[in-house]
């Protein structure tokens, strides 16, 4: 099994690098241009802060799309009427939680600015991602792109510390009447930023998957856009599965002697945490993006997808999306991937509008 995984990884990985977090942070500190982000950095990384662990970076080619979708797979699907949760307890060290980063084509390109959309918020809470971007800026052989003219090139970052949580919800009493999401963050008072920022001690560890959605569409989705979305999602999810399995089996090998008298864990559990990818600033269609992510999870054969809907309206859209998907495959357990993508195209999903963030 391990050799098979290593063979697939070798064929599709473009770059990979393991970096000691403490050394990375010391040699390539994040460069925060926004005063409120500098304030958060003072809270998350004071002078006596201890950075530990190893951060694993990898950039991947697109995987060829499998011919069939197994609609009878054991994929667990759940929605949460909230925003991202991190730090799942994992006593057996066999759960690999991956959180989608709604990326720009240039990885973490706006992390230091006053913008505070999903991508930038994730970097602010995981400041070593800013250090990673600064390190990448000095690399000639590694291009920090999540897509090229040839297609998606998803990027994975495994093992990054989450040092603070920032509450973006509106709260008049705490000085954020409109919340802190998007452009509101840069205009908030420093008192409001302090009130919203909570130190995580000790830091939890997150795994980040960065992919860019298509943007700027008008009217109905083209088949080309649908194909790109599915390719990006499947490639990212499958890369996360392979990377998780690699990490798991390497860990098992290291702990082999310690586990001689224990029951061995058979395999890692791979979980995708996501939401309405590409449906904010990029103006994507929420139903279509939901359907494609569930399909990609099935094809990639991950174990679970947790979909954060944000609010009641988001939950309604999620539920509607599941019904649409059920109407496509009905009682079939397997269906041609091409047939499903074509049916989605024929349904004429409309592009939405940017939310300005």
Automatic annotation (TrEMBL):
Q: Which GO terms describe its molecular function?
A: poly(ADP-ribose) glycohydrolase activity
Pfam families, per database record: PARG_cat_C
Source species of the chain: Anaeramoeba ignava (Anaerobic marine amoeba)
Extract the PANTHER family matched here: POLY ADP-RIBOSE GLYCOHYDROLASE, POLY(ADP-RIBOSE) GLYCOHYDROLASE
| Annotated keywords | Coiled coil
The protein in question is named Poly(Adp-ribose) glycohydrolase
- Where the record annotates domain PARG catalytic Macro, the positions are 245-313
**What biological-process terms (Gene Ontology) are attached?**
ATP generation from poly-ADP-D-ribose; carbohydrate metabolic process; nucleotide-sugar metabolic process; regulation of DNA repair
Establish whether keyword Coiled coil is in the entry. yes
Q: Which InterPro entries match?
A: PARG_cat_C, Poly_GlycHdrlase
Highest taxon above the source species: Eukaryota
Q: Which residues form a coiled coil?
A: 239-266
One cellular component term (GO) for this entry is: nucleus
